[in-house]
Amino acid sequence: MDDLELLRRFEPILRFNRVELFLPSDTGAYVAACSLWQRKPDGTEQKIAEPGELDLDTLAEVARRRSDETLHLLYVEDPLSRRQFRAWRRDGYGEPMPGASRFSHVGITGRIIDALFRLTLLFRGRVPRGSVAAGEIIYREKIAAAGTPYYGRVSREAGWTIVQYWFFYPMNDWRSSFHGINDHEADWENLIVYAAPDEDGLLEARWVAFSSHDAEGDGLRRRVDDPDLEWVGDHVVAYPGAGSHSHTPNRMDELVRVDPPVMRGLVRFFRRLLRALTPWEDHSSLDEGFGIPFVDYHRGDGVSVGPGGDREWQPVMIGDDTPWVRDFSGRWGRDSRDRFGGESAPTGPKHERDGIDRVRWEDPLGWAGMQKVDPDPRAPVRAVTERLASVNARMRAIDDEVAMLRTASRRENSELRALDADVVTQALATERREQLDERDTRMLSLRDERRHLSAERDALEAAQRDGLPLEAPRAHLGVESVPDEVEGDTTQVRSRLLRIWAAVSTPLLMVVIVWLLIGTGSGYYWVGALAGVLLVIGFEALARRRLLAFLVWVVIVAIGTSLILGLVQRWQYTLAALFIIGAVVLLLQNLKELRSSR
User: Fold this and answer.
1) What is the CB neighbour count within 10 angstroms for residue 154?
2) How many beta carbons lie within 10 A of that of residue 550, not counting itself?
3) Which among 24, 173, 236, 379 has the fewest CB atoms less than 10 Å away?
4) Residue 362, Cβ neighbours under 10 Å: how many?
5) At 15, which helix (H) or strand (E)?
6) Residue 275: helix, strand or coil by DSSP?
């Protein structure tokens, strides 16, 4: 079976959201719609080619001739104005995601951090407003008719046949269309099938890895028998995120928490502050990131691309020798010079933004944690046999060493008795006794190692005799690698309450902060400050079904405050009251003990 046949055999099925604006596209049609720009050392930009002047071959040729220059394509030169954008929406384009309210699924902690993150857009390079609508028009008029290709690459390494599918999209409109983290021109995503021969030598799919933003590691892959996976024959089904095009193996609204590095210090401070202000809320998610919440919508209620779907694939083979893949290392769209990087276009499938090879291109096994997975189904049995032989050999070596040390220790113990009996040799006996103690310590260490080896030998012999236990499909994932799914609201009333509160809570909290900063001249300063904080936190607790925990917290704080004030102002009476309460409690406990001892 040649590489093209392999690609066709395992090609995936992508099921998009109904409101998705951009489907996998032809890179040649995209390049023809773009202009090409060079960024000069002084930061200015110069246009090298107008839209319509480029194709993939000329792009590669220009990149070779200008290999020492910083190049990027530009997809949208003239974003739509507000008036044009409104007309575009009236024509039925850019439909919003139905039932979407990401802040109704996260607490006030995440919403405050998100507000800080949004403020950074004021000084970051970003994709201009109206670019998505303009990009959709260009896509619809100049690119969509070229079909829905994938760019396939087959490689072989360490016993695996690695079948890669690369998908190109003219734009990532996650932020503008679906309230995600970023927008950028051009988007490259991929899916990898890892195949290996079965016991009869026939090639079969074993694992599938789904690209998910910039993630790497075990969490990207699923074993073919994972219950999350959906198959149509040999074709796995994937659900691209609305606007982001990130993949998941099943339908879900996935809660994504983003960790922007430049905000670490500021968010650490707010994390500690919010833990103190909202102790009843679960802040554990912030330990693995900053908890800036975004929802990736993978609903699959729109166009299906692939075998049996609404559209068929047009496979295009690529590799290290494909000129446009090899030679053009520039960005495939607008270089907004975003300090975070998220609003700037990506480079191609082979290159990272710094020009070196992508991990998933150069090391597709390591990208998804596959280096440690052996493709040979008989390898685990051999590994058990080899380890058992090694354990037995080590146990024999320990037994021999312990026997030698034991004989030496017994002889030396007898010699020490003779040395202790003579005053002249007592100092020598002390020195020899230290050596004897070291030998005893060594024997104890060896015996402890042998006990553990003995337990390991028993387990290995059981596995050799009874066979290895079946490994669960998700054993490689761990709890931390399972994506968080946004749960739907149980009632329309609660859903509406959450959405309204999510919209007004963060601005209301900012108003409270303003009062804390400038309201000090008012006679009602502390009353207003306390009322504002309790209002925000109380409504948050009510919306999250944590009102009882909030009330308990208020009562505890009120009692604690009263005690502190009492100790400061009337410390004798407060202390006397505490002693009386303690005495009553102690008396009741003692009477209970007397009754039970009869």
Assistant:
1) 19
2) 21
3) 379
4) 13
5) strand 13-15
6) helix
Q: Is the dihedral of CA 504, 213, 29, 185 positive or negative?
A: positive
Rounded Cα distance, 75 and 332, in Å? 8
Which one-letter amino acid corresponds to residue 301? D
d(CA 39, CA 348): 18
Q: What is the 3-state secondary structure (H, E, C) of 35-79?
A: EEEEECCCCCEEEEECCCCCCHHHHHHHHHHCCCCEEEEECCCCC
Quick one: which of 355, 359, 333, 360 has its CA closest to 169? Answer: 333
Distance CA 533, CA 528 (A): 9
SS3 of residue 307 by DSSP: coil
Q: Where are the domains of the chain?
A: 3-367, 379-466, 489-593
Q: What is the pLDDT of residues 442-460, one digit of tens each?
A: 999 999 999 999 999 999 9
In which residue are the tokens 């380890």 written?
Answer: 387
pTM of this structure? 0.76
* Largest interatomic CA distance in the chain: 110
In the DSSP assignment, the letter for residue 357 is B
380-398 tens-digit pLDDT: 889 999 999 999 999 999 9
Distance in angstroms between the alpha carbons of the first and the last residue of the chain = 88
Q: Sign of the CA dihedral 590, 592, 593, 598?
A: positive
- Compute the Cα dihedral for 111, 115, 116, 120 and give only its sign: positive
Chain length of the chain:
598
Give residues with Cβ within 8 angstroms of 172, minimum separation 6.
182, 183, 184, 185, 186, 187, 243, 244, 245
**Rounded to an integer, what is the distance from CA 322 to the centroid of its chain?**
32
Question: Does residue 16 contact residue 300 with C-beta atoms inside 8 Å?
Answer: yes
Chain centroid to CA 32: 35
> Amino acid letter at 87?
A
Residue 103 reports pLDDT greater than 60: no
Please name every residue paired with 188 in a beta bridge, in sequence order, or none if there are none.
168
Q: How far apart are CA 199 and CA 377, in angstroms?
A: 7
Out of 1.25.40, 1.10.1760, 1.10.287, 1.10.10, select the CATH number for domain 379-466: 1.10.287
Q: Partners of 237 in the beta sheet? A: 13
Cα gap 471→52, rounded to integer Å: 54
Listed residue (107, 233, 219) closest to 481, CA to CA: 219
Q: How far is CA 276 from CA 265, 521, 555, in A?
A: 17, 27, 16
- What residue type is assigned to position 21 of the chain? L
CB contact burial 321-338 (16+ within 10 A = b; e otherwise): ebebbbbbbbbbbbbbeb
Given a cut of 90, is residue 158 above it in pLDDT? yes
* 450 closest CA partner among 503, 392, 405, 490: 392
